Amino acid sequence: EAGVTQFPSHSVIEKGQTVTLRCDPISGHDNLYWYRRVMGKEIKFLLHFVKESKQDESGMPNNRFLAERTGGTYSTLKVQPAELEDSGVYFCASSQDWGPPQDTQYFGPGTRLTVL
Amino acid sequence: EDQVTQSPEALRLQEGESSSLNCSYTVSGLRGLFWYRQDPGKGPEFLFTLYSAGEEKEKERLKATLTKKESFLHITAPKPEDSATYLCAVQAGGGNKLTFGTGTQLKVEL
Predict the structure, then answer these.
(1) Min CA distance, A14 vs chain B (Å)?
(2) Using the beta-carbon criterion (under 8 Å), do B97 and A104 form an inter-chain contact?
(3) Rounded to 5 degrees, what angle do the CA atoms B20, B40, B84 make?
(4) d(Cα A48, Cα B96) in Å, to the nearest integer?
């Protein structure tokens, strides 16, 4: 079974540009999550989709970040315009269900974003 | 606000030297405590979920335990391939989000 995949693995952009990150969850997983780790800090939650609906977006830092999950399959996270402090590693995770034991979140390899 | 603190930040062991990693937490309504392993350049890899105080789970050389305030990850007779960062995360309240600690970086030497 294929795991969570993310594209690209690395992205280097200039401040003010736009970047779009993509996540493909494990097939059949209705729940999709975005997290990020900035330098030296812990991994922090951004938002949670259930199918195509945003269940919890309490971790989104500001309105420069836009997440979508059209059709309830893959998701994109757009940063527009990017700022220096957006640099970090963005992880996507998916889980089959809400409650145990199917609530385990499986993570992708991450996208390393560098804003210059 | 949910808080997770892991200690030590880094740990160096000789092969075969058993030890424990600590994860202490402060949450409202713990639903689950998760342990992950992360290798450099990769995403967190799921190890265990613990749901209630007193619960224990084992996998190869790893054993995770849970109390009402903390969790321990015991590593018995570690090997160099156990070298990684071990992350603890909690899920609390009504949502599914994970709150992570900063991790323990483990290095096992020959």
Answers:
(1) 23
(2) no
(3) 15
(4) 8
